[in-house]
Amino acid sequence: MTTPTMPDLRQLRYFVAVAEEKHFGRAAVRLSMTQPPLSQAIRALEETLGVELFARTKRSVELTPVGVDLLPEVRRLLASAEALRPLAQSLARGESGGLSLSFVSTADYGVLPPLLRDFGVRHPRVRLQLTEATSDIQLEELVAGHIDAGLVIGPLPPRYAAQLSWLPIAREPLVIAMSAQMAARVEANEAATSKATGRAGVEPGEAHPTAAPAEWRDSPISLRDAADAPLVIFPRRLAPGFYDIIMDCYGAAGLTPRIGQEAIQMQTIVSLVSAGMGVALVPQSLRNLRRTGVVYRPLSEAVPAIETGLVWRTQAVSPVLAGFIEIARAHAVAPRRA
User: Fold this and answer.
1) pLDDT digits over 78-124, tens only?
2) Which of these, 45, 24, 51, lies nearest to 36 by C-alpha position?
3) Are 189 and 252 found together in one domain?
4) Which position has the higher pLDDT, 69 or 218?
5) pLDDT digits over 244-296, tens only?
6) Residue 141, burial from CB neighbour count under 10 angstroms (0-12, 13-18, 19+)
7) Distance of CA 36 to the CA centre of its chain
């Protein structure tokens, strides 16, 4: 009979029993078997490994130096093998494993933190791999199978509808981000207009009564008040749906924006606004990005809502991903009415 090229777990358990009992008879009793097949199994293990594990005499059985060094390694192998069943069951329940998740920069200031917090509480043993990426890159990575899910800005392009599933999580209005200097000029104009019309207003240089915190003003302004300022925006190829919404806001107000600068990341866009390079229309949650010299204000015009949602491959939902989707559904906005 051909000797196996690899030892099996049964032989390794026999080896540990003989090593601990230092006696084939006692080891056989412990293993609920007779001595001859145990001795044969140990001989077969030694032949498979090509080494002697025991020094045998008529009165004693002792481990050879190789056997002494091998014993702790065999114990670790057996422990790992015994852990396979509970590990497999844990993976099947989504309690352990890994999840690769990408997200747009705006999600980091809105939907992402509460999702990660709740997921971490319910699935503490899952390894999360987080990467920041634009919506277009995330969709390509999803289709290629390089990530499990992504947080992107909707809507989902129709060409992905057959492969990807989409769950809207947050819906929020656009607000305008402007430099503190420009905000001061706008507020001065508002104060002058209020004074001319006999309404209570804010005197130039005074703090706005609703300014809490200083980077946010509750009172809306018209997009026309910032019509002369250049628009800081990202390239259309990165998120055409979002880009077009911003352009439509200007169009609905009868304005044609003057593109001043383009940037890929929202943090960069806000930094350019802080430097006085122009204004930007951003999701309202981005006001959580506190940048010195930037003021956020709502718009008086009717603005469409920006949707941020979870997207994943429809036919590739692992137990871990299913758990994340469940949490995302709990955070999701109510279905849009017709």
Assistant:
1) 888 887 787 677 666 666 688 999 999 889 888 999 999 999 998 88
2) 24
3) yes
4) 69
5) 889 999 999 899 999 999 988 888 999 999 999 999 999 998 888 888 889 99
6) middle
7) 58
51 within some domain: yes
Residue that finishes a domain, picked among 58, 82, 106: 82
- CA 302 and chain centroid, separation: 32
Its pTM stands at 0.67
Domain count within the chain: 3
CA end-to-end distance (rounded Å), the chain = 75
Residue 338 domain-assigned (yes or no):
no
For the four alpha carbons of 227, 231, 236 and 242, in that order, the dihedral sign comes to negative
Q: Which residues contact 43 (CB under 8 A, 6 or more apart)?
A: none
